[in-house]
Amino acid sequence: MCTGKCSKCIGITLFPLATCAIVSNLLLYFPNGQVLQLSEITDLVWFFHGIVGAGILVMLPAFMMLGAGGAGCCANRCGVNFHPFQMLLSVILSVLGFAGGVYCAVISSLGLIGGPLCNTGDGEYIYPFRNDTLEDNYLFNQTTWSTCKEPENIILWNIVLFSILLAIGVIEAVLCFTQVINGLIGFICGTCMRKRKVGMQ
């Protein structure tokens, strides 16, 4: 596959991932569909790791990848559609997308490990699991989930959404890193080697 087609495929794949990341991050603000006060929302949600990290920062290189991919092998040095600046810019933006994916994965991991902010029954919202060791973490001990009384199902809500964001962040980071390599190959080497070989035969 030529570098242009590869860029286009990666760009197309990143769009739904970035959209899912934004939606998942937004849902974290409304646990179990409830509208909470700002002080009752888990602090890590305010890092916007899904909206900015895995969302906006990934959509930017995705747009550029589609432009660099164009129609067919437009990254071909021997073709009239080759735009070296476009391919180089896609590399730079892919580095940004890689950073966004890693950022999302890191914050999501911390959100999973630390647990949610919740009401334990006395009316005060605290983080009941943040001092747990990895061995005693609530993720591996479902009986401790009853500690959180409100919002309803907050632990499951956070686990599912943070897990989705973690997976999306990792996939996006891998795809963006792949595009960095692909873009550098397209910018430095071009994709006209195949045409040259055909012409020599």
UniProtKB/TrEMBL annotation:
Pfam families: L6_membrane. It is found in: Membrane. It is a multi-pass membrane protein. Coiled coil: none annotated. GO terms for cellular component: membrane. Its main location: membrane. Keywords: Membrane, Transmembrane, Transmembrane helix. It comes from the Eukaryota. The chain crosses the membrane at residues 12-32, 44-66, 87-113, 154-187. Belongs to the L6 tetraspanin family. This is Transmembrane 4 L6 family member 1. It comes from Apteryx owenii (Little spotted kiwi).
